[in-house]
Amino acid sequence: MKILITGGSGFIGSNFIKYWFKNHPEDSIINLDKMTYAANPRNLVEFENSPNYKFVKGDILDEKIVDELVSQVDTIVHFAAESHVDRSIDDPSLFVRTNVLGTYNLLMAAKKYQIKRFHHISTDEVFGTIELDSTDQFNESTPYDPSSPYSASKASSDHLVRSFFKTFGLPVTISNCSNNYGPFQHPEKMIPRSITSLLSGGKIKVYGQGLNFRDWLHVEDHCRAIEAILLNGKIGETYCIGGLKKGTSNMELVRLILKLMNKGEDSLEYVADRPAHDNYAVNWDKINKELGWEPKYDLESGMKQTVDWYTQNQIWWQETKKEAEEFYIKLNSLNK
Ligand SMILES: NC(=O)c1ccc[n+]([C@@H]2O[C@H](COP(=O)([O-])OP(=O)(O)OC[C@H]3O[C@@H](n4cnc5c(N)ncnc54)[C@H](O)[C@@H]3O)[C@@H](O)[C@H]2O)c1
Question: Is 124 among the catalytic positions?
Fold first, then answer.
């Protein structure tokens, strides 16, 4: 396969490139990434001199670059996005441009060059929220009901992707996954933020009373699911991907991190809740039955591996941690 990966220098994209080369060394990858604050050039240094890997710094909104790169591949795996809910509350416009118009650009080029597969990475956040006391789960037929500008922009991009299948017969697949965790995740996101705060001698910030819940998917399990869809998924279909354990509350999660890092509850700090804070749980029966995929990581072993990685790779996150905390200070001052 000749694959164009968009957003390959971010968290999931870089894990996916590592995973793909490990398991499909004969394939070639072009990574188109704008290198926003969320990207880290250290993520993919091991491929810098590889003949099968090419990095292009560029924007998916740039029609010329997109056209030139899409003409060289047969497959697109589209990760590039503005991905942080709290930043979409601060400034929604970039989310609409990158996530909606950027996806549109890629779709137009994919149509022009008759790409064999366009796989779109999306989120379970497009489905909205589950009531706090409910055991409901999202699945592929759950109606879309996004709550944040981030999830609304991802929902729009999903609709565009689906429309290019229905209208033009573009061979697309979509996956809607739950929250990912694992190595190389920016310290603005909940799990790395919590771990790096403890490693820096600070406290874990808990939104509200920590009652909100979600599924947690280890990034490597996510990469295996994308592989299963690329190799055996049915064109035009959507697949939901989630973790082994359903509906982990934020309180349960931070207590697990405290336990793994030998800290007590005095290392928690309760802060104002996020507006429109959702709850998520994902039913992944379809991908399990049709493609034989299931998560390998349980939350405890995945979290231990993640804590160990952040403990051993402090140089990777120290600078971005500072910027992330500055962003939260700015956001809090705007909300007062
Ligand atoms: N992280 C999660 O828990 C999660 C869960 C569900 C779905 N997703 C989806 O998975 C995808 C990847 O998420 P992530 O957590 O790796 O995000 P990330 O923020 O870590 O990385 C995004 C990458 O996209 C690049 N990018 C942003 N705008 C771009 C543009 N205009 N042109 C080219 N590149 C651009 C950034 O530089 C960065 O490298 C996103 O589409 C996100 O919506 C993420």
Answer: yes
